[in-house]
Amino acid sequence: MNENQDPNKDPNKDPNSPRNWLIGFVGVAALYLLFQIAGPSAPSMNPLLGSSVATYDEALKAVQSDDSVNAVVFGYDTFGNPVVTIEFKGKTSVTAGTPPGGYDEIKQAAKAKNIEIDGTYQPPLKPDEGNGGFVSFLAGYGGMFIIIGVWVYMMTQNPMAQSKKKSPKHRIYPKGTITEKLDKFAGNDEAKEESVEIIEFLQNPTALAEHGGVVPRGALMVGEPGNGKTLLARCIAGEAGVSFITISGSDFVEMFVGMGAKAVRDLFKDAREHAPCIVFIDEIDAVGRQRGTGMGGGNDEREQTLNQLLVELDGFERMPGVYVIAATNRADVLDKALLRAGRLTKTITVEAPDLHARKLILAVHRKGKNFGKDVDFDHIANSTWSFSGADIAELMNRSVILMLRRVTAAKKLGKNLPEEVNSVDIEDAIIEGTMKALASKSSSRRQDPAIKTMLAYHEGGHGVVAEDGYQRWLASGKHWAHQWGNALRRLTIVGAAGTGGHMQATPDTNSSVRTEEALIGQIACAVGATISERLFTGTATTGNSNDLEQAYNYAKMMVTKFGMSDLGTISVGADEDNPNLGRQMGMGAGAYGLSDESSNQIDQEILRKLATGSRIALRALLEREQFLHALVKKLEVEETIARAEWVELWNQFKPAVVSEERIEAELQKFWPRFVELSSKVEA
């Protein structure tokens, strides 16, 4: 073996190996012979078909003296040689080759006897009229040479080598090209505040190192389409004054193995050359989905690409001045390795704009447009509830189009109308936007105030239960381990990341350890929305599905994994992280792998945890009913409430005194079985 040859490389897989060349040549030759044997030939081009062979002199003599000659046909044989066919009446025709000058000689003899001459074919070329031999050669063997040429070209092409000639799939915007600033990103102050930190890292990367810190590698932007993830990334680059490199996650997906990983390497190579810079990967879920799913765990091109991306984000080689921002609306499917510390550490939620944000966005997009005095932008902001930033921009542009349509139609009737957008144009544009969303089966534009009220009671239920538990813990003066409620930070009824709204409540400690009290509190907080809907609206919505799923998972883990039940310190159930079966296969395991009796006992304990959490949530909602009603009215108008406003409103209402009998009576209406199961346990 050559000492310079790669020992791990299979020579049989090399497209330029002699073995592959020989196999390919034999295949091409066999293919050509097959075409020659089985391929159809055109009878009109082969005068020899159905004829006997004769010499030229015999053919000429027949034309001159044989009265049975019916026609003379000139043409070429299969190999392109000139021939003449003499057709007789009642006899077999004969075919002979025509030497130079033979065409004219036989033609004159045929004319002398008024014999029909077939003029379909051109006369054979004489030696001085062209290279007939070369033409004949190409006619006979040109096809084979074409096939061989194509085969040689394909054999000598290396996809990896060819990729070097291609332009990179990512786009590079050098420093100074991106001019957007943060002031162009109207609304969503929370996302802008998170972005300021990134700008500081890029503008002064050594400040953190001077104090022993390390600049983070990147951040993940989460939000529904149209909320401004890409715009925010561009604004960060423009504000920081750095280069901007962008690529879509789908651009990494290739047919050839290893090409996606190469694209990742090329991307970060250019990023290092253009540092300081921002690398923006849009729709990262296309390549960053969780690994190890399906039978066998999977090891396809996408996973190899993801592995290379993980290495580049946090490998042995540091990337000073390179900050990665990834965007997605499917954060739930991303591989956990992408989000661990050292990679995409920070998560920036780019939410749908609330009322305040919509007013700011309208102020941005109304510039340069002529509006009538009857246009009320506060009314527009209220009417565009749940519109994204892109929707609002399209609304403003659409209103101008409708205005021009209206003015043009009036001019045809001899009327001159002012070229300004009025309230009717705005309302028509809002209706068009709403109907378009409904037709495309996207999230509906929630114009009905009743839906606002329902969402307010839903999200308010979460917030009240979490805050009530937090305040009870503060009053008790107990250790943090006994904290089961969390302080509310922010609550909104505007959709974000696929939800109808959301509540942010975080603990005072950063411990990853969960106590039994904390898990019971999580169950109570999760079911609080369902109970709130049932108590104060008389019904329940489908928006509770994810909440109830979370509550059940908490209860199940407490019983089957953490030993937090009367069954003792047991740990049962399928291994959900089996790398050989894949996650989806592991999740489909049976009833804990135990007998029916044991499984029923486990199910009973899970229901007991759910019942306890439901009882706690019900008590909190009944005691804080007056606060919840006031909160709903506030959310119907402002749509979002922060911690300071929440505390101010909370302190205005004292908790009501609620008896255990009333709690059990209300619980009896919803889930009678929970009355018995929860009666022995109190928070």
Account of the 3D structure:
With 683 residues, the protein is α/β, with parallel strands linked by helices. Helix 20 crosses helix 23. The protein is elongated and about 135 Å long. The chain starts with 17 loop residues before the first helix and ends in a 5-residue tail after the last helix. Mean pLDDT is 78; it is low at 1-13, 38-49, 123-132, 160-167 and 575-590. The chain contains 24 helices and 14 strands. The strands form three sheets. The protein has a six-stranded mixed sheet, with helices on both faces. It has five domains: 12-39 and 136-157, no CATH class; 43-124, Signal recognition particle alu RNA binding heterodimer, srp9/1 (2-Layer Sandwich), CATH 3.30.720.210; 171-349, P-loop containing nucleotide triphosphate hydrolases (Rossmann fold, 3-Layer(aba) Sandwich), CATH 3.40.50; 355-439, Helicase, Ruva Protein, domain 3, CATH 1.10.8; 449-678, Methane Monooxygenase Hydroxylase, Chain G, domain 1.
From the alpha-carbon coordinates, what is the Rg to the nearest angstrom? Answer: 40 Å
- In percent terms, what proportion of residues is strand? 5-15%
Distance between the termini: 76 Å
Strand order of the largest sheet: 6-8-9-10-7-11
- What do we call the CATH homologous superfamily of the largest domain? Peptidase M41
Residue share in helix: 40-55%
CATH secondary-structure class of the largest domain: Mainly Alpha
Summarize the structure.
The chain has helices at 18-38, 56-65, 102-112, 132-156, 159-163, 189-203, 206-210, 229-240, 259-273, 301-313, 336-339, 355-365, 377-383, 389-412, 423-439, 449-476, 516-537, 545-560, 583-587, 596-623, 625-638, 643-650, 660-670, 672-678, and strands at 52-53, 69-76, 82-88, 94-97, 116-118, 171-173, 218-222, 243-248, 277-282, 322-328, 344-349, 487-492, 502-506, 640-642. It has 683 residues and is of the alpha/beta class.
